[in-house]
Amino acid sequence: MKKLTTILAFLCASAGSYAENVVLSTPGSTLVLDVNKGAEPMFVYYGARLSDTELANLPKPTTANWSHLEVYPSYGATHTMSETAFAMRHADGNMSTQLLCDDFKTEPVSDIAPNGKPRKGTKLTIKLKDPLYPDIVNLYYQAYDDVDMIECWTDVTNNGKQTVTLTQFYSTCMPIRRGNVHLTHFHGSWASEAQLVETKLTNGMLRIKNKDGLRNATTDRSDVMFSLDGPAQENTGDIIGAVLCYSGNYSVTIDTDDTEYHYYFAGINPDNSEYHLKKGETLTTPRVAYTFSNKGLSGASRNYHDWARKYMLRHADQERMILLNSWEGVYFNINHEVMDQMMADIAMMGGELFVMDDGWFATKYQRNTDNAALGDWVPDPKKLPGGIDKLLADARKNGVKFGIWVEPEMTNSIAELYENHPDWVIKAPGREPVKGRGGTQLVLDLANPKVQDFAFSVFDNLLSKYPQIAYIKWDANAPIMNHGSQYLPKEDQSHLYIAYHEGLIKLCQRIRQKYPDVVIQDCASGGGRANYGLLPYFDEFWVSDNTDALQRIYMQWGTSYFFPAIAMAQHISAVPNHAVFRTTSMKFRCDVAMSGRLGMEIQPKNMTDEEKTFCQKVISDYKTVRPVIQFGDLYRLHSPYEGDNLASLMYVTQDKAKAVYFWYKLETMKDEHFPRVKMQGLDPNKKYVVHELNRIDNKPLDCEGKSYTGAYLMANGLEMPYSHDVDYAKLNDWSSRVITLTAE
Ligand code: DGJ
Hints:
alpha+beta, ten-stranded antiparallel sheet, eight-stranded parallel barrel, 19% helix, binds (2R,3S,4R,5S)-2-(hydroxymethyl)piperidine-3,4,5-triol
């Protein structure tokens, strides 16, 4: 049997070829580096998996136009004019560094992935050293045995006697051969996360960065895909994906100089973060996960989804519960009666979990708006005199599980916590702190172990006393708006951002060690923390505070590039929508929410009986396709960004026995003409029976109950009527379909 991952170091005899190539392979990809002791390691190849014969004859990459191929260029000795991955100030003031290979090894690894699951692969360690100094930079590459992912990162150790200063410390550099290379990345804003941007790479520098301090996925996201042979296509073409597994300030730079390559760099943002490494200390940089796919953007996404479900997401082998979250339904107006009614309603509609959002806590100050009480994590005796006990009793009575919202990293200037611990907040010395949400919100300094203990106690107090709490929504609604740690020494104030995130990860690890089973949602003003730095400790994330079904199609489309449906919380909400005030039909809202982890974000009391009955049917239908959506392979078929008012995607089970197809019309115009969408991922030889879910039409579709081969569906698709066949009074401008395909 062919070994899935191979490493081989081989000698190429002919003059001018590489002295020693090191090869890392995954099932579908190969990375080749030229590593020689006493020289800088060089890039040779990253792409589709190569056979031994191909490897033996692998042509040298071009070095025309003085192309530089070093995979970890450091500033000063060899590289001064081009972009570098690493720079430091040595203790003697020397700003130049030359990182040459001192030694290297490849070895099989069997370790524990960030989500706690065992994984296997191959690790290449290249020990880099400056001939003038004792410090060591290890450059690592780790290839997985069973997913097409190669992770790259570094660590730097000060082996000298005096402190050195790191001024640039990217995790990786990858040269990407010029040609018709297009970059896909995601721009965003609060309530408008993950907006797709595609750019043809040309000369110059493209920098994507984050300096929020806390929520690095609200605005531009660090994860990118390179389409190597022209404008990106969903299901064809060569793609390199690169995901930075980090939750803090990041910098992604793509530099295109006068050589034959684009140079991709990614890692911690060094802005205002120079790092002092004392004698014996080590700084480890976050991993960048590379994937290669020759099946287009969707293929690269499937690689990320596969990796995430195996190694980067908690409980990814367990179906997610269908829930009602209280936020958009009642905001801060929480009390026992309303919580009980919401629980009863979601239970009646078939939901499995009720989550009580913001507004439940208060001691000295009330939480009736967003300006007070964060940190005072005691149930408000006025709103909830029966406390958590009564809420849990009500949940049991109604037959649903119970979840609760917390924001453990925050306080308000109007809060008992702040009054007792003003030294716990992040603020600049001698200055009044700049405040965030509500004009009073402050960020607690997670660099401080006492603050870490406090944040842990927020979880521990709830979960140890009330083990029936099944779900925690962990929110974070403010950036770091002040530079200053009251904990870090004055000479290390520039460590604030990095130390904060180290503290955050320690906190996550501690929580998971004690509470491995509880479901935790990662939320930060919506999708502000949708990143693989944090997700390994979480089960899912809130895609956006914008629940408008139309804009969600775009945001969910973008989010799906890197994150699997099982992780994407998508809720049916009220109309007019609270973020954009658009009125969409209930059917459209359900069909859009159903393409991920389905939930509701609404006061059911305000729904009509007809709407409740419809949602009851939607939830029961969702349960029949939940495994297909949550564990299936995603094929994005027709992008909403194409500009022709249509979006379509589908999920197919790995055995290709079942599929769910989604079709959305984005705008209604007279004289409209949509292409018929060809399906993907089916078995051409299987025959699939068609069935429409969430049907509102008076008559079934022509194709209802009929069978078609996978070959036919992939060559022709199915005809979707442009509107719904409903009674005149029910006509509106929204149209969408959810279709199941079941192999006979
Ligand atoms: C922001 C979140 O994204 C919302 O879902 C909600 O939990 C609010 N915070 C509560 O303050």
